[in-house]
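Hi support team,

I'm filing this because I wasn't sure whether my run with phosphoric acid mono(formamide)ester finished correctly. The job status page said complete, but I'd like someone to confirm that the output block is well-formed before I use it downstream. Pasting the exact inputs I used:
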Amino acid sequence: MAVKFVRPKRVRLARDNWNIQLDEQGRLRHLVDVQGLPPQLITQILDTAESFVSVTDRSIKKVPLLRGRTVFNLFFEPSTRTRTTFELAEKRLSADVMNLNVATSATTKGESLLDTLRNLEAMQADLFVVRHADSGAAHFIASQVAPHISVVNAGDGRYAHPTQALLDLFTIRHFKQDFTRLRVAIVGDVLHSRVARSQIHALNSVNTGEVRVVAPPTLLPAAVERMGVHVYPDLESGIRDADVIIMLRLQKERMRGALLPSEGEYFQRFGLTPERLALARPDAIVMHPGPVNRGVEIASAVADGPQSVILDQVSFGIAVRMAVLSMCLNRGESQ
Ligand code: CP
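And here is everything the job wrote out:
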């Protein structure tokens, strides 16, 4: 698993993304980050995904859009939802799909990330889906691949998880239609969350009425207000009258030092229970990117309750990933 990646100093992530993600005609070539994507491109991704939802409802769930194209899934970090929904999306688009098993690949014998990429390029790869523990890994790979190859970030370190944010937008639009009147509360470990960072940029891009972050001060990034959010230090005020509540997992694997007294105490103060959910709007929806830690950030009665759309997020993830893959690889062709 330990494929060491050192981000070169010259890579300035957010500033460079504008250039690296779009081709000369302004079409999506790579998806590294939601930040830097033009809002109309975000809307185009959501609209394209809409057209793929019906494909996933058919008995034969296939379209030939990526026939003859080869997609490699490179997951250097564990995943359930993202890896499998990418693979399903690729297969439903009729791509040839290769999953690199990192644990049994030559990376365990010391092969560098770049050498691995060069070898996969030699196998006529068209697109790499990349998950990596290091922030900036997807950007680095996108900056190194041959001109005809696209890279889609499936989550890198604490930096970005753009397809998660896009499928979250899709889910919110499906249930709530108009973003401009919505109060969206993002609750929990914002500090370590690539999902929260991407969600904040995505929600602001579509002019969401109010984006709130709700967390203890130890789990908030410094100067988070500069990202265009309102900070709420307690759950009760943070979710009051909210239309959408997005719960985040405590990312213990990324925590250094004692940021919390205990999981029990965290649940006492920030766990979403049915009683607390009643403070939100009666038609509020509850979201979670997964994996869910029941009894830590959310009670089972809420995760499995009538306001939860957690499994809808997973289903919509297939259509959203189909949209991203087809837009990256079929530039210039109508969807
Ligand atoms: N939401 C998400 O990234 O889940 P996985 O880690 O299972 O892919």
